[in-house]
Amino acid sequence: MSATEIIDQQALNFFVKNVGAEVASQLEACTRCGLCADACHFYISTGNPEYTPIWKVELLRRAYEQNYTILGKLKTAIGLDKRIDTEDIAHWAVLDFQACTVCKRCSFVCPMGIDIAGLIGKVRAGLTAAHATPPKLMAMTKNQLEKGSPDGSDEAKWAAWFKWGEEQLGKSLPMDVKGADSLVVFTMLELNSFRNNLVHIARIMNAAGEKWTLSLRARDAFNMGTVIGDGAVQKKLAERIVKVAHELGVKRIIVTECGHGYVTLRQAAHNLFGETLPFDVVHITELMGDFVRQGRLKLRKGYFDNEHRITYHDACKIQRIGGNFDSPREILNLIAPSSFVEMNLNREQSFCCGGGGGVRAIPEAYDLRMEAFSLKAAQMREVDATDVVMSCSNCRLQFKEGFEHFRIQGEVKGLVEMVAEAMIE
Amino acid sequence: MDWLEFFRGPMFQIALLVFILGMVYRFLRIVLMGWKKDYSPPRGSAAAGVVKTYVKGLGFLPFLPPKFPGTRHRPLTYIAGGMFHLGLFVVIFLSTPHMEAWRSVLGFGWPTLPTPFIDGFAAMSMIGMIILLSNRIVSPVGRMLTGLGEWLNWIVVFLPLLSGWVLYHHLFGMPYQTIFAIHMFTVDWLLIWIPFSRISHFMTYFITRTMHGAKFGRLGVEP
């Protein structure tokens, strides 16, 4: 067996090993109607049939049929279907990593109820097992394992940011406080691009009278294991945060403006450790909503009402599968009741920004993700929105780049900064 | 024994046996692969999610496609799918001759619809199938996803509908016995074919829909 054949075999073995009833029933239920194509921002914006979500699962389907079904075995034996080879793996690595943000829009559209994006996650895992993951994502994974953050930011850089935050605030930040109620975990995107989030969130926490803490040991909610589909990495990275949460005895982990970090801790982490962890995982969006509802946070009514029209972008991980639809709307209806306008496709129907699932990090995917973003820009145009607000740093960066790319005038805001500005301290 | 007797008699029984055993095998093979337990704390009711997803999946999607994905592009595919399935089930379960066939197998019967209605549903079903097939030929996505299996499935499902239609309307001046024998042959072949093909999605549908509803219900999201 040649080296590439061995690698192909590894991918195949991975697919075969990871087939349980959940995967098998979904693969068997697909009638290949193709309706999922119309859910996918990559397909809609380019018309390339290969971007049909279920087509991105093709490798897994072939591996399943060739190993588990009588007809599949027969088809392979007589040459009607060929075994997965290096070329297939390279081809699908592009489709699954560059042309899919794992936004799960397709999963809500399938007439059979197949969680197509969930299956794409399995394909990504197989591709990673076959060493076919885009090099940039692998480099980021290595960085995060070694230094703590995917961009290579280490503890010293984070410590410097926290110190900067203390200077801005004029008071110290709570660090490793035992018995705090909330452990707040940021991401490197905020560290690098939205530095003020630290100050904003500290002010929000303090204003609400929350007993909270930071920790340099549990600093980055980013999880490259989730992005590339490597369970071992995912567990290792989640463990850094889970361990500190255990040690400090917090009641909940607050994930700031990050989508996949939030779902990783809220959903995957429990299953990675095989137990229900003794703390809640809450996104900053829902936390701010709770604070407002509980009267712990007072916002200036109509603070952002002006000639601008502001719309809200629902993020895939925070809203579509996180369910945090109402909190941002309640907040926006308070601080910008006249300026706030919904996009026509909103809540679970919202289009993905085109930059999630690691796509924004892959240089080769730039043109494609801008194509996908054009749908989002069109959504904004439809309702004459000038500004857009969201609570995911990755979406926010994609919007900023998209605005620049298409020369769109307007502002891209974070919900956290708006709340911090409109808040009565 | 003539052909008709053979296709209605021993052949039908064999086909039924293959169908039942095949589907039991497929069901068990999937289910016995095992489910992973979900340890994440629920944010909503899995049961409510299941109910909602069936209401949406059975009552809404096939007839009133959702606002968000396909309507602007291919509402017809949703609607044709709905027409085909509804028509097919009405013909299989609510026509008098078919109910009689069921009675001979199950031992009990039920009220049926008048024949002109059945005729309409059969026509609707066949029109739905033709639209679905056209989509597979015309749309680049449909062409890419359609393989030998999909073609064969279409033919195997269409032939009993067509032969039943010809039988009922005495078309082409064919002797009644001959066309009846052809109809029974296509039905036998359909039954044998189902466990080996994706037509078995009538069973996996209930697994995937239930999983979908439970999963998203648990997450606190409208499935």
Secondary structure layout plus pairing:
The complex is a heterodimer of chains A (425) and B (223).
Chain A: H1 3-17, H2 21-29, H3 41-46, H4 58-68, H5 70-77, H6 86-98, H7 116-129, H8 135-147, H9 155-169, E1 182-185, H10 188-192, H11 196-207, E2 212-213, H12 224-228, H13 231-248, E3 252-255, H14 260-273, E4 280-283, H15 284-293, E5 310-312, H16 316-320, H17 326-335, E6 340-341, H18 366-382, E7 387-390, H19 393-405, E8 412-414, H20 415-422
Parallel strand pairs in A: 1-2, 1-3, 3-4, 5-6, 5-7, 7-8
Chain B: H1 3-8, H2 10-31, H3 46-60, H4 75-94, H5 96-106, H6 115-138, H7 140-145, H8 148-169, H9 176-193, H10 201-219
Helix pairs in contact in B: 2-9, 3-10, 4-5, 4-6, 6-8, 8-9
Key terms:
heterodimer; A: 425 residues; alpha/beta; Fumarate Reductase Iron-sulfur Protein, Chain B, domain 2; Rossmann fold; 3 domains; 4-stranded parallel β-sheet; B: mainly alpha; Fumarate Reductase Cytochrome B subunit
Structure commentary:
The complex is a heterodimer of chains A (425) and B (223). Chain A has 3 domains: 3-133, Fumarate Reductase Iron-sulfur Protein, Chain B, domain 2 (Orthogonal Bundle), CATH 1.10.1060; 146-293, Rossmann fold (3-Layer(aba) Sandwich); 310-422, no CATH class. With 425 residues, chain A is α/β, with parallel strands linked by helices. Chain A starts with a helix and ends with a helix. Chain A is built from 20 helices and 8 strands. Chain B has 223 residues and is mainly alpha-helical. Chain B is 73% helix and 0% strand. Chain B is built from 10 helices and no strands. Chain B has helices at residues 3-8, 10-31, 46-60, 75-94, 96-106, 115-138, 140-145, 148-169, 176-193, 201-219. In chain B, helix 2 (10-31) runs parallel beside helix 9 (176-193). Classes of the chains: A alpha/beta (425), B mainly alpha (223). At the A-B interface, helix 2 and helix 14 of A face helix 2, helix 4, helix 7, helix 8 and helix 10 of B.
